[in-house]
Design brief:
Elements: H1 4-22, E1 25-38, E2 41-54, E3 61-68, E4 76-82, H2 90-103
Antiparallel strand pairs: 1-2, 2-3, 3-4
């Protein structure tokens, strides 16, 4: 289990990504475990952090997490997905990021 200070730092890091990418302030609401499967195989497993966001014209919530990448200069990327339309849950945010990440990673703010 991660220490409280590591969890706090991780949440602050995600809030910073939300602030930079969406230009809004946020408050952490919840951490939700998500397992996404395709054809019986697990394709994504992890925690999605849920944030209330303030001042965005199209959404009042964001979902965020980090993923490890194979880049010696930067070992992780931040993913943030706004709650809007079909993206109405942490699981839907993961699905959307997977699908959209294949065709246009910048659309959902997948940032190295």
């Amino acid at each position: 289990m991660a220490s409280r200070s590591k969890v706090t730092a991780y949440i602050a890091e995600l809030q910073d990504a939300i602030r930079k990418l969406h230009r809004v302030k946020s408050a952490h609401i919840d951490s939700v475990r998500v397992i996404e499967k395709s054809r019986g195989n697990t394709v994504w497993k992890g925690a999605v952090e849920v944030f209330e966001i303030f001042g965005h014209r199209n959404s009042d919530r964001a979902y965020a997490w980090t993923e490890t990448i194979e880049d010696p200069a930067n070992s992780k990327r931040h993913i943030t997905v706004l709650h809007a339309g079909a993206v109405n849950s942490p699981k839907a945010a993961v699905r959307t990021a997977i699908v959209e990440g294949l065709s246009d990673p910048q659309r959902f703010r997948i940032e190295p």
